[in-house]
Amino acid sequence: MTFLVLLAVLLVWELMVRIFDIAPYILPPPSDVLIAMWDARDLWGQHIWMTWSEAMLGLAISMLIAFLMSVAMLRSLQLRKALYPLLIVSQTIPLIAISPIFIIWFDYTIWSKVAVAVLWSFFPIVISLNEGFRSVSPERREMMISLGASRLQIFRLLEWPTALPSFFAGLKMAAAYAVIGATVGEWLGAERGLGFFARRASNNMQTDLLFASVFILCVMGLLMVYAVKYMKRGFVR
Amino acid sequence: MTFLVLLAVLLVWELMVRIFDIAPYILPPPSDVLIAMWDARDLWGQHIWMTWSEAMLGLAISMLIAFLMSVAMLRSLQLRKALYPLLIVSQTIPLIAISPIFIIWFDYTIWSKVAVAVLWSFFPIVISLNEGFRSVSPERREMMISLGASRLQIFRLLEWPTALPSFFAGLKMAAAYAVIGATVGEWLGAERGLGFFARRASNNMQTDLLFASVFILCVMGLLMVYAVKYMKRGFVR
Amino acid sequence: MSGEGDANVFVADNICFGFPGKRSVLDQVTFALKERHFHVLVGPSGAGKSTLLKLCAGLLNAKEGTFLLNGSAADCSQRLMQSVYMPQSDTLLPWRTVLDNVMLTLELQGKQSAEEMQERAMALLDSFGLRDCADAYPDQLSGGMKQRVMFARTMLKNVPLLLLDEPFSALDSLTRKQMQRWLLDVWQRDRRTVLMVTHDIDEALLLADTVLVLPSEPGETVQALEVTFARPRSFELIYEPAFVERKRLLEHMLLGGDNL
Amino acid sequence: MSGEGDANVFVADNICFGFPGKRSVLDQVTFALKERHFHVLVGPSGAGKSTLLKLCAGLLNAKEGTFLLNGSAADCSQRLMQSVYMPQSDTLLPWRTVLDNVMLTLELQGKQSAEEMQERAMALLDSFGLRDCADAYPDQLSGGMKQRVMFARTMLKNVPLLLLDEPFSALDSLTRKQMQRWLLDVWQRDRRTVLMVTHDIDEALLLADTVLVLPSEPGETVQALEVTFARPRSFELIYEPAFVERKRLLEHMLLGGDNL
Amino acid sequence: GDEAEQKSPQKQKQLTVILDWYPNAVHSFLYDALDKGYFSDAGLDVEFKPPADTNDPLKLVAAGKVKFAISYQNQVVTARSEDLPVVSVAAVVRQPLTQLMTADNSGIQRPRDLEGRKVGYSSIELYRTFVEAMVREDGGDPKKVKFIDIGWDLIPAMLNKKVDAIMGGFVNHEKPIFASKGMNINVIEGKNYGLPDYYELVLIANEDTVQNDRATVDAFVKAMRKGFTDMKQNPQKSLDLLLTKQMEQFPLKADIEKQSLEILLPKMDAGDQPYGWQTLQSWQTAADWMFANGAIKKTIDAQKAFINVE
Ligand SMILES: Nc1ncnc2c1ncn2[C@@H]1O[C@H](COP(=O)(O)OP(=O)(O)OP(=O)(O)O)[C@@H](O)[C@H]1O
Ligand SMILES: Nc1ncnc2c1ncn2[C@@H]1O[C@H](COP(=O)(O)OP(=O)(O)OP(=O)(O)O)[C@@H](O)[C@H]1O
Ligand SMILES: [Mg+2]
Ligand SMILES: [Mg+2]
Mean per-residue pLDDT for E148-175? Predict the structure, then answer.
């Protein structure tokens, strides 16, 4: 289904470009993009690998941070009230302001890009996880207490499984954001990665190559989101 | 509470900068930032107004688009399956690829920035609204049908009110994203706005002014999120 | 309980139904509802009582068999028009006050002015002993009160056939008795045809003209037990030997002759 | 029902409780539970039956008054250790199979090996007639079966005091009777002290040694009705005149002397 | 003497150099020097890094995070007026590359023709100041020119006639690309309309490095010089080296880069002086002009803004 829809979009795009005679340096027809992609076939491997690594590392760290934050927010109303505005603020800071800090902290390593991916992707996970934790029914909690559950057991056996579907809902969004976050992170200075590639192609007006990298990014995002969906099946009934 | 937390953050920041002797062109102490903000007090009005307008327009259009999309997805499983991958793809396309298209469509008017704000903020609303619509209990739907409700009545009186809390949850995220989206949009071409100002300050090495605009952005984001929260009280019990 | 009231106003003829991908739930179910009679449907959990009610209400389409309304076949939309179904679970809208929840029925008909609707709804709430909580929200009510509000909402749809799925199951015995009495009162006033599901045998015998017993296994026939105690019935009835005897009979029918 | 079994194993002495920001729910509630007796608590909806059970279970702290366990004051944690509370609503974990839900109790104690736990849980499921659905998930069960699973899970906590909040309210009459019988069987075997809430008067009288009537208005005293029918009790008991007479008495107590 | 001492590979000094942009023709001589081992001969283990999208390189040099970066003379002036301790150690490109560009057929031949037209510039306020000064110099009214900060999309903006002129494009990069897209570009040179003839690109280091680690600065600039000499002699070879190296990461267009280098070479060559030589006059003019035109709020000591490596 997904595949068919995307195919349909590409077809419509191709037709539109040809009918309205849109300049290829603005919006190249998908056929050109695919040809350019094929011509540069030797290059993609390293860039895909780099961006993929950044996004995956970012997502993993996001999950960890989001988990810790939302557990803290579950345990203490005070903490929730304190962290909430910081969460929002973290999403309204333009990268331009913090990029030097990231580079100073993380140097030109992969970690500065991972940091951007984390910044973009942890937010939806925290929000969803927080909502999931709050949906635990008080009756179930009472039942657990009466059966003699410790605080940790209540978390492990009740709160966490209850929040799991919300967690995956947030993770699905976060997967898409991790990819774009990694791409944007590559603007902090990189020599590899699809964001790096896209930017160079754009600067050199090689629009077909630019869109080739965009195609790959989209596929990567889709794959990550569907991977989360698939994973969810294994965890959530 | 929020206010106290932010104050605490600023204090810690000031201390850190002073203790570790961090260069002011990397991270200026908040006191410098506030002084710079005060010195430039005549300038802020127009920039705030511009970014605010972009973000608000963006958020309004996002709501409309998200509403239409999720209603379509509620009505037809086929449509949901078709739209879902496109939604994800829309979030993994780097702005660099579509900025020329935005400029061709919207020129250097406010609408190119609004378009970016929309692109950034409609996604969480669609996702949440979609989830909200799916949480309508079949029993309630049966009850409505049996009481003689038309399809429109079921939507107006059951489905929409059921989805409202989810809608606001999505809107809260979207409010933060609309602000940063507008800011980023201003990099496509602008003569006004906090994003424009931030970039300008960054290029002029005026890090204190850069962070002054970041402060204002954060406050704007917080205000929008809290406004949504407040609005929610009026709509959701 | 005789005369014009005995016409079969609603007939289920050989109804079969199964959910997609599941084995059959109802198989060749046949029964008749007599005009202005009170019918109670009993049967084990999972026997398909709720499913049967939804079929009667026109919310589901029977796989086989026909429904007859006043002697002529009635499709889903006709059944929807002529009956009202009150589900088993809590279907109050949590964002509406009690009054607004009750007014929903009238709003959906949309023929009356707001004042008229409010008046009618308030009058009904009054007779349900709910006047004081007209402005409360459902989550401020006890389970019992909720059920009563739902009941009021259903009654407001002015149709000849009421399909009630365990309306009193969430009520405590006190309120339950009050509600049973009230239902009998209301019903005796306008005598709509009622098909009500319950698990409470006392309740079934106290209210019913006819008790229908849905078998636990699809395929077996629906048994009917006539209950001929004179109306109006007093609550003291349940302590009378004749009643106790009927109760024993019905319970044995339910347990399939086996006395556990 | 005499001899050592008549000691007051659990006493609620002048218990007062109110939820924050609400008027008092329970005021000076006093009652005693006799060792190895079956107590049934009845009362109108909203009277505070569930709240009282939670207080007894140590899930809530009384504002005033003391609880005595075997004669000495028992704080929350002691009550938690010595009793188990089964809530009124569906508290099965939807992501666990029936077996795993039941095993939860043993897991939380954490003293046994997985096989031992499985064995014990399966044995119990068996005696509940749930062996076949051990691997099913709660949403695949009927409301009745769910309640039975919850019941099994609660019983597995090996404590002297069982606090059951309407365990059978979601069961159909057939299963309900089976479960009542089963409960009597189990209870007669190990004779734990039980305090059970119900809305069903027949059930109350059939099971109880003592029926406690919680008044609708806070402040009035809790009345106790001794039920002295010989055990083991047959289900035919409910059709006997002596039983019907007790039922009439209890219902009149509940309705406060007023016969509606 | 220095060089001999530092030749042993164990003592190689690791340093990072941030470029002004992703590797392109202007960096050919650096890669040439790297490839021929001029840097390692000088005891330097050099790594070139592309920059972030912002002025982060300048900040990183100022913060001592990296040794060298390629930046812009104007940005160095701006940075010094904001008290960033950066010093220019060599002029990489000696003339402005950023020039006002208009479409050949736009009818704009000189700055004053811009009255009533739209000028797009790339986020740097100074570029706007430049154009305003040019218009004024040419007898026009800068207030009648409509300016838009068009961010990074300079070429699409022109190609789609969203603006009538752009400021911020490089004559060696944007101009050939315009040509390849079929648009002929008219370049209006700033020096003809009163703009200083500043150095486009300079190599910068931290003040601290210049004072306390002068040997490294000298070694680096000298090795770089050797690379430039080789490139001057055989530009195509240097360029090919760069292109093959870049091929692994991103396929640069050879013809564009070739044109670029042809334009660049004369603008890089210091003539009689050693490559990279800077004059006080250039710095003084740039600083004075910027201060006079309000581009910086306080003036700088031009003498301290640069050093020359003999
Ligand atoms: N939407 C559905 N999809 C699939 N199966 C269903 C659905 N609703 C009910 N069933 C199944 O149909 C059967 C009959 O269910 P129904 O709810 O009609 O029983 P019931 O007699 O009303 O039970 P109870 O007394 O517990 O309310 C059950 O086995 C149930 O699992
Ligand atoms: N968590 C709570 N917060 C505030 N008020 C509560 C809470 N739980 C119960 N109440 C109130 O306390 C009173 C007693 O409630 P409780 O659930 O104990 O009654 P009950 O006798 O068990 O009723 P039912 O028979 O309907 O189960 C009610 O008025 C109820 O509204
Ligand atoms: Mg049912
Ligand atoms: Mg209760």
Answer: 90
